[in-house]
Structure formats: C-alpha cells, structure tokens
Amino acid sequence: MKNQQSVPYNEDVDLLSFDIFKSLTEEEVEELGQITNCTLHKRGSIVYNEGSRINGTYIVVKGIVKIYKTGFDGKEQIIRFAKAGDLIGFRSVISNELACTTSKIIDETVLCYIPGDELTKLLKENPEFAMALMKLTCKELGESNKFLTDIAQKTVRERLAEVLLLLMDEFELDEDNTLQISLTREELANMVGTATESVIRLLSEFKADKLIELNGRRIKLLNIPKLIKVGNVYI
C-alpha cells in the first residue's frame, strides 16, 4: 500500500537479522529480497487503515508503529506497539480478511513490504517459518487475552503501572532509567483503556509517590519494585 508520507529506502536490509526469518534458506532470502519493497515513513503517517484490504505484510526494520482499533466514539484503543523485527498485517493476509486494526507511525520508521503471495508460499514450503509465525500469532493472542482480563479485573491505577512496566520490557530504559519511547498522555490513556484526564491525575500521583519522574513526554522510572507491586504484576 502506497503512502504519501513515505519515500523509497535504498539502504541494504539484512532480512536474516530478524528472528522471524532465521529459518529461511539462502534461496528463499534471495527471492524475498528481490520482491520486498522498503520505504521510509514519517511520524503520523498511516500504513493501513482498519477495514481496508491488506495484500501483504510488513517487517519493521527500524522505528515504532502504533497498532490500534477505533471505537464507535472515535476513541483509539492501542493494541500494541511494533518495533524493529516485528511483523504487522500478517494475520489479515493469512485469514484473507479486512484489516481489523489501523497502523500509524509514531517514530520515523523503515518498513519492508512483503506481498501476500510470497508470505503464503513461505508458509507452505518452509515448516519452520510456518511454526515461527504460528508461535507469533499465539503470543499476540495471549497478550490480547491478558489485556481483556486486566480491563475487567484491574483498577486504572494498576493498569497504568503495568503499562509502564510493559513499555520498559518492550523498549528498555536508557542509562538514566527513562523509557525509550515517547508517548502523549492520550496515547498512554489509550493503552490503559481510560480517559486522558485519569492518566494525567495518576501520573501526578505516581510522581508524588516517587515512583516516576516526568519531563514532558519522557517518563523516568524511579522505583520499579514498587511499580510491580502497584500493578500486581507477576514476574
């Protein structure tokens, strides 16, 4: 899918550097490289919209992509963030269904587009790749099930603490213990599943409790053990 806010990316991309492609043969990698189209996307651009027909999948080479659903009131519910090495859009290709989510660039990103026919061919001819993709699908399903349980059983305060810890696991901390992903208060609220005002209030409470330190969009984690306790997270 073409995007007006994308330009060709002409640098070499080593597909074997991504775990999902580790099982591919040299011939498969060479063939994949010949038909893969890589593009650089600016922050704010849409990769594909919910309800659209996706004819291929994307591997994230670098950057961050927000995956979300839109409610009847227009409010976003963030499902996850995709980073380098992640595949997006593959479920709709395999199931031959319309996209059930929207993908939006939140940090300058390089994506490589893999046609659906090539993905299907690899699944049929390479059992190890098929198993890797199956494991990835199961992992995403497990995360979705956990999210539904948390929404039903945890307080907003618990969910916010858990989201901060999730972002720490996904994107790690810098040398100053600051999350290496910058999100708006609205995006945090859309991850937690609550109103933006509630997240703003709770972040202030976390700051007062010396759990975090705020510097604009940047969040520094001061007391990770206490956040684990607040979030009722089992590690």
**pLDDT under 50 segments (min length 5)?**
none
Coarse shape: elongated
Structural Rg: 19 Å
- Mean pLDDT value: 93
Strand residues, percent: 15-25%
- CATH class designation of the largest domain: Mainly Beta
Helix count, DSSP H or I runs of 4 or more residues? 8
Overall structural domain count: 2
Question: Which superfamily, in CATH terms, is the homologous superfamily of the largest domain?
Answer: Jelly Rolls
Distance between the termini: 40 Å
The CATH topology name of the largest domain reads Jelly Rolls
**What can be said about the biggest beta sheet?**
7 strands, antiparallel
Portion of residues within helices: 40-55%
The structure class reads: alpha+beta
User: Could you give the count of β-strands?
Assistant: 9
SSE pattern: EHEEEEEHEHHHHHEEH
Primary descriptors:
single chain, 235 residues, alpha+beta, Jelly Rolls, Arc Repressor Mutant, subunit A, 2 domains, seven-stranded antiparallel beta sheet, two-stranded antiparallel sheet, 24% strand, elongated
Layout: helices, strands, pairs:
Elements (H helix, E strand, L loop, with lengths): L5 E3 L17 H10 L1 E5 L4 E3 L7 E15 L5 E7 L4 E2 L1 H6 L6 E14 H10 L1 H27 L2 H16 L13 H8 L3 H13 L3 E4 L2 E4 L2 H7 L5
Antiparallel strand pairs: 1-2, 2-7, 3-7, 4-5, 4-6, 4-7, 8-9
Please give a structural write-up.
This protein is of the alpha+beta class and 235 residues long. The protein has helices at residues 26-35, 90-95, 116-125, 127-153, 156-171, 185-192, 196-208, 224-230, and strands spanning 6-8, 37-41, 46-48, 56-70, 76-82, 87-88, 102-115, 212-215, 218-221. The protein is elongated and about 55 Å long. The N and C termini lie far apart (40 Å). 28% of the residues are buried. The model has no long low-confidence stretch (mean pLDDT 93).
